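Subject: sequence -> C-alpha cells, single chain

Hey, anyone have a minute? Need the predicted structure for the following. Not urgent.
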Amino acid sequence: MTAECPVASGGLADDRPPSAYTYLLGLYLGDGCLSEGRRSVHALRIACGNAWPGLIDRCERAMRAVMPGNGVLRVPAPGCTSVVSTSKHWSCLFPQHGPGKKHERPIVLVPWQQAIVDAHPWELLRGLIHSDGCRIVNWTTRSGKRYEYPRYFFTNTSADILRIFTDTLDAVGVQWKAARRPTGAVNISIARRASVALLDQHIGPKY
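Reply:
Had a minute. Here:
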C-alpha cells in the first residue's frame, strides 16, 4: 500500500495525475462511497453499470493512477460492478466523506480540490455524467425525414453536488436547464445544439 499521504502538503502530490483524480472525484460524487474498516483503512467503491464496460475499465485505470501500488478489485453484483480499492488515504483524497448519505450532508470542495477542478473541468464533468448521467438521442419525423436531437442529462438528489455540476458547466460555457422530479431528485438537461456539441467534443456517450 502507498505509505505517503497524497495530500500531505495541502494539495495533490506531484506524482498523482490531476486529470485522473478529477475524473475519479466525479465518479465518487455520483456513484461512489467510502467505508471505513479496521485500522482506519477505507475502501473506495464506485458502482459502474455492466452495460458500459468501457466505464469500468476507465474507472479502474483512474484508481490505479491516483493510488499507484494499491490493488483494485472488481466486485460483481446484479447489473453492476463495483470497482474497489483500499487505502488509509482515500479519505484524504475525498474529504467529502462522512456518515450518512451524500444528499443528507454538506458536500463542498476544499480549496485544493476546487483548484484542480478549475484546471480540469471536463474531467469532473465526465466523471459526473459517466456516473449519474447519460447521453440520449430523441428523434422525430417531418415530411418523411428523420431528425435527431441528442442531449445530455445528469440527475442527482444532493443540492451541493448539483451546484458543483452546474457551476462547472457554467465555467466551460455549457447552457443547461433544471427540472425537479417527483422523487425529489433534480434533472439537469443540456439540449442546446452548441452545448451538446461541446459535451460531444470533450465527453461523449458512455460505452
